[in-house]
Amino acid sequence: MTGKLGVYRRLFSFLRPYPRQFVTAYVAMLGATLLNLFVPQIIKGAIDRGLEENHPAALFVAAALILGIAVVRGGAGFLQRYYGEWMTHRVAYDLRDTYYIALQELPFSFYDRSHTGDLMSRATGDIAETERFAGVGLLELTGVVLLIGGVVFAMFW
């Protein structure tokens, strides 16, 4: 377990130089997730008040609220996606740069034993997978966990 934790710790160290973008992406993701949880409650209120209590104006208010939430959620989604992708590309650049520097410091005997294809595969494949996780993948994972937790909370509230 310590080995895997060390890998994640090193991976997060590549996100550390970008705290503003990291926080912006996560706050936008949190906002979009929370707004997703309000829509069913608004619909519930619209059905209860608008249809059962015969207040048709409640349906229009609910529609306006849902439209407003959709606009704000769209903005939050844009910020989340923009900064998530921005971090993804910056982390990939930093990873490639670190990999290149590490390769430059190795002795020539290393290159006698290693195959160029293996080095290139690592430089492209492994870094590409890591970049997907570090930026957008981590945001999506956190968003889904928060959404599931929020849905469970809303069901019992």
Structure, explained:
- This protein is mostly helical and 157 residues long.
- The protein has a single domain (17-155), classed as ABC transporter transmembrane region fold.
- The protein contains 5 helices and no strands.
- The chain has helices spanning 2-13, 19-52, 56-104, 108-113, 116-155.
- Helix 2 (19-52) packs antiparallel against helix 3, helix 2 packs parallel to helix 5 and helix 3 packs antiparallel against helix 5 (116-155).
- The model has no long low-confidence stretch (mean pLDDT 87).
| Number of helical regions | 5
Radius of gyration: 23 Å
Net shape: elongated
User: What is the highest CATH level, the class?
Assistant: Mainly Alpha
Provide the number of structural domains.
Answer: 1
Tag the structure with descriptive keywords.
elongated; mainly alpha; ABC transporter transmembrane region fold; single chain; 5 helices; 157 residues
Topology:
Blueprint: H1 2-13, H2 19-52, H3 56-104, H4 108-113, H5 116-155
Short description:
The protein is 90% helix and 0% strand. It contains 5 helices and no strands. Helix 2 runs antiparallel to helix 3, helix 2 (19-52) packs parallel to helix 5 (116-155) and helix 3 (56-104) packs antiparallel against helix 5.
